[in-house]
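Dear U.,

For the methods section draft, I wanted the exact inputs and outputs in one place so we can describe them consistently. I've listed the two proteins in the order they'll appear in the manuscript figures. Please don't edit the token lines directly; just add comments below if something needs changing.

First protein:
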Amino acid sequence: MADGAPRSRRWLAVTMIGLALLLGMGTGVYWGDLVRNALDPKEPFQTYRPPPAPDYARREAWALMPTEPAITSPTAPAADVFFIAPTMYDGGDEWNAPIGDPKTERLFRQVMAPNYAGPFVRIGRIFAPRYRQASLYSLLTLREDAREARKFAYGDVQRAFREYVSRYNMGRPFILVGVEQGGTLGARLLEDIAADPQLKSRLVAAYLIETVTPADRAPVQPCLSKGQPGCLAAWVSVYDGQLERAGALLDRALVWSPSGDLVNLGDRAALCFNPILGAVTDRPAPARLHLGAANATGLEWDARPAFMARQVSARCEQGVLHVTAPKSSSLKRTGGWADRRKAPGYNLFYADLEADAQARLASLLAQRR
């Protein structure tokens, strides 16, 4: 009997450890599904009551704006930049983010603005509207509710752009920049810009970063060479060897139809701009031409980050930009499951985009003389 009790306790301990391991493995396998379910608002968009709308006539509706937006000094940059931020709001309670959500504000200030608006800060005055962005959950499902949330977000962006044009642009050249969801909204906005000859003539370029855009329905001409003004640079990327991910990105991509609905890309080709070469092309870009990546997370706004040149090579293949894995450990995704599905806290083409935009602005200004 004396030996039986310890043996029973040992078997009980082994059983408990085994159950814990099985539970841990199961949680790991299904963790994504558990998080996705937690982020689901679980309410039809048709009955959903969105957060209050921003008033773009008020400064607090803008995440970034010049100190004197209606006045340009002789020392001001020659252009403006209308920047549409990527998704930063996870979801859970809302289909669309409330304006001023603390985590969203912090991510914008510390991560998204330095890394994605930063390349353009020496080229133009930055105008970045706060908008009721569709939640991260809306990007993880093809449900009609999610499409409606993304269409709803465009209404804010459209109103912000109209306010910018009417009050602050003053006939100046401008650059349109959108990242991920912001790029999808930018693609819709670009159609409005292309329909207005005066606006179209002032467009330096549209950069739709990590955004699937149909090659057969670009509102303006794709950027086919360096220095070409008034064109569209759009791409979505994967690391080399991620063939399944490349296929999934295109299979799940939603693009705008002529009627203003979000529809599947289907078998249409996607536009692929190579930021290293500054052109829509299938030619490979070797790492020796790479001007520099940067991790600007946590830097003060408009501080110039250190560039890491020759970090990656890139090539377009079947509408997707295939990029080699960067060498620096500071160019790796970090954070939890949801954070790793947002725009990363670094920009692989920071210096390339800065130089590209400078060249296109110089060309447009030369044409306007």
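Second protein (the one for the lower panel):
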Amino acid sequence: MSAANEDGALAATAKSSGFGGPLAGIKVLDFSRVVAGPLCGLYFADLGAEVIKVEAPNGDENRKWEPTLAGTSAGFFYLNRGKRGMTLNLKSEAGQEVLRELVASADVLIQSYLPADSEALGLTHELLMAMNPQLIHVSISAYGLTGPMRDHPGYDLLAQAFTGIMSMTGEADGPPNRAGASVVDLSTGMLAFGHAVSALYARAMGRARGEHVQASLLQSGLELMSTHVANLAIGGAEPRRQGSGLWNLVPYQAFKAADGWVLIGVTNDPAWQRFCAVSGLTDLAENPTFATAKGRIENRAAIVDRIHELVGKMTVAEVVTLLEPARIPVSPINTLTQLLQHEQVEAVGTLVPIAGLEGSTAKVVGRPVNFATPYEQPVRAAPALGEHREQILAEIGYSPAQVEALTQSGAF
């Protein structure tokens, strides 16, 4: 069977068998807010789990962040697609009653309240385990659940400042800068998801029952800085700002071409010789001072100036065409618009239409990892505030009359 026919057969088998993804049948309660926790929940949804977004009566604050469409933020549309939604007032006795029923029917619960707020709202690990000893409880905090800062609030940029990411981001003679992407929030969601799935696996194998997966922005920031921590601990090298480059590799940075910017990287000594050969910089290749990484670091300015002079006379496309055949790491420095229009992005199939924006050609990042066995990603739009409350409650045994009574008692 040809590869194409085999892929087609796999797709047909997946569709006919009703394969909904590797986590089909898993039920997730997503009580989290903003970015990190909702991203963790989104990964569950994209892999086939049933995810219920449970919001406080006033909703996730991310709903109102700009830019918005019809009163809902683009970020909320993205991070909460594929989920159903309801509200729940955990400060009410009736809300706590519903919480117990929801938790009893769930496999995973994600929450991102401060530890003190978790205690006040009945979302501590001890209380949740009493409701469901098999539950995988994922708590996401700013600074962890112990220590003097356990109840300090935190966001991505605060975490970038605290963990040293800002201190090493920016030009050498400039102020600390924010990393352009929300790297701490996003990595926290990824780490929380991966460890939650490992806890589910341990439970499925009979090695454990419930588990408390404890992720924090602080620990994610430390992980992002982990190679620099090793460099400091072992080699005494405090990371410092180097603009677009790395302090320990030369050249490895952005260079301005005639029509834009291009990234050029020379990561070892043989690559340096190849780079000089194809670039016509034979005098640099023959200079023993530049032959090693240490020598190039010590003579950074002289090398970088020569490359700036060379690249400034070429277009970005010319630089890429020159260096790629020599296996020199090189890339245009794309804008986001340029990236999304690139044929390679289309080829990997990561962009998907966003449900709820019918008639729009807008696409967002879908599942960022591919499987050999295909399955359709969920196309459910991010829920309106409280949209699926009656449906969700009916599934765990509440009658319409009971839902109305709970509504009157302030449960939602």
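Candidate sentences for the figure legend, describing the second protein: Residues 1-18 have pLDDT under 50 and may be disordered. Residues 251 and 304 are 7 Å apart (CA to CA).

Thanks,
Y.
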